Amino acid sequence: MTNLGFDVLFKGSNFIRLLLGVWVAVRISLISIVLSIILGMILGILMSLKNPVINAVSKVYLEIVRIMPQMVLLFVVYFGATKALGLNLSAETSAVIVFTFWGTAEMADLVRSSLISIPSIQYESSFSLGLSKVQTYIYVIVPQTMRRLIPLSINLITRMIKTTSLVMMIGIVEVLKVGQQIIEANRKASPNAAFGVYATVFILYFMVCWPISSLSKYLEKRWEN
Amino acid sequence: MDFNVIREYLPIYWEAFFLTIKIGWIGILISFGIGIPASFSMFFKIPVISQIVKAYVELFRNTPLLVQLFFIYFGLPKLGITISAQTCGALGLGLLGGAYMAEAFRSGLEAVPKTQSEAAFALNMSKGQLFRLIILPQALSSSVPAVVANVIFLLKETSVFSAISLMDLMFTAKDLIGLYYNTTECLTMLVLFYVIMLLPVSVLGNIVEKKARFSMFGE
Q1: B202 vs A80: CB contact, 8 Å cut-off?
Q2: B residues 151..190 contacting A (CB < 8 A)
Q3: Please, where are the H alpha helices in chain A?
Q4: Which of A:64-83 have CB within 8 Å of B?
Q5: Size of interface A-B (CB pairs under 8 A)
Q6: CA distances from A50 to A37, A53, A107, A173, B206 (A)
Q7: Chain B residues with CB inside 8 Å of A169's CB?
Q8: B2-33 pLDDT, tens per residue?
Q9: For all residues of chain B together, what is the average pLDDT?
Q10: Do B154 and B93 contact (CB within 8 A), yes or no?
């Protein structure tokens, strides 16, 4: 019982490999979050226009994202697209597609709700001060929307990073898979490696996500009006 | 799309569906059991306990369920703690959900304005009455949207159970695809079963959210 398998981490380049695995997860989520922020802003603004067609379509889209597990979406895109459409997507591309599909919906909802939450008095008073429509948006509405939006979208980044742990199921070698490989490779030499390696992966995820979610909490508190 | 295949697989999927629901709801019950006391301890700032609860909430909110399950299912047996896949699934989901529920209820409790307690004291209510009759109903009402979102989130997270070889919907679909290569049928059924599982919860959640808005009245 003295050996809990932490020693495996320091054999060869095992720890570096784990860190590279973390980077794979972070890279996928960063690409997806950038795409989701851009697409989500566009969709969110479209949704706040209250066009009945856009509203109906976006409602269905948001409901799909709300009730479909990301894992199912990953499988549908990775295995289903290959079979049904003959597309040969790499695992990483399909992961980015799924996370962007999911993130865009979340982001659009955040943009819409923070646009709606700005009271109409704000618009009315800026018009009465003689600001044009563009000026109203640039100087009054967007800064207030940003204050609500930024903490929430930072929080979305941590959720993305956490969800990337699922991509190992479609064969991407990220931190959890690397951990599994290390455990398999050292099954004879240190049979207890599962404890040490998985505990390390646990801590690694925490060390990546915790600072980001703390930042989001801090900003949310600071910008509360 | 081959409907004979679908008819053949249907019983297997139903079995997996009920298993998923069972473990999902047990996990959600555990998460309520953990979340409510945890949120109280944070709200009343009970020394030591509230710090431990805070650490637990941060730890489980900032790590993915898959990693937690791997640690519980593959890591803990090395310490001599062996748990069956089903117990591990429910426990992992409960621990994850507990952290989310604790946050939901805590922010609900803290959303009740100070004037409410002051008014209650002015009416000569005791501390117990204040909490039971004034704070709790309003806190519950304002935490409903977060709780509904958490329940849906937790039910969705059950798809991760397949990784610890629990025969849930995801595992069944993966297994059948691997055996017979009926990818289209299997994935369609998987999607449909998740719709059956989550659409009612989502619709019901919306209704509950609308009914429970009473704390917002008068604003």
Answers
A1: no
A2: 152, 156-160, 162-163, 170, 173-174, 177, 183-184, 187, 190
A3: 14-48, 52-67, 70-75, 81-85, 91-116, 120-128, 133-135, 142-163, 175-185, 193-222
A4: 66-72, 75-76, 79-80, 82-83
A5: 117
A6: 21, 9, 17, 43, 20
A7: 162-163
A8: 788 888 889 999 999 999 999 999 999 999 99
A9: 90
A10: yes
Which amino acid is it at A43? L
Q: Are A105 and A99 in contact (CB under 8 A)?
A: no
What DSSP string runs through B23-76?
A: HHHHHHHHHHHHHHHHHHHHHTT-TTHHHHHHHHHHHHHTS-HHHHHHIIIIIG
Torsion on CA atoms B210, B215, B218, B219, rounded to nearest 10: -90
Helix (H, G, I), strand (E, B) or coil at A86: coil
**Distance (Å, rounded) from C-alpha B150 to C-alpha B143?**
11
Is there a contact between B62 and A165 if contact means CB atoms under 8 Å apart?
A: no
First to last CA, chain B: 54
Q: What is the CA radius of gyration of chain A?
A: 22
pLDDT truncated to tens, each residue of chain A (225 aa)? 457 777 777 777 888 888 998 998 899 999 999 999 999 999 998 888 888 999 999 999 999 998 999 999 999 999 888 777 878 888 899 999 999 999 999 999 999 888 888 888 888 999 999 998 889 888 988 888 888 888 888 988 998 999 988 898 888 888 988 988 888 888 888 788 888 889 999 999 999 999 999 999 899 888 876
Global pTM reads 0.88
**Closest to A67 (Cα-Cα) out of B191, B189, B209, B143:** B191
CA-CA distance, B184 to B1, in Å (whole number)? 7
Of A149, A210, A76, A65, the closest CA to residue B153 belongs to: A65
Give the span between the Cα atoms of A60 and A1, in whole angstroms.
54
Please report where in the chains the tokens 């979610």 appear, as a residue. A213
CA distance to A10, A30, A106, B76, per residue, from A197 (Å): 11, 25, 33, 11
Each residue of A175-213: b (16+ CB within 10 Å) or e? bbbbbbebbeebeeebebbbbbbbbbbbebbbebbbebb
Residue type, B36: I
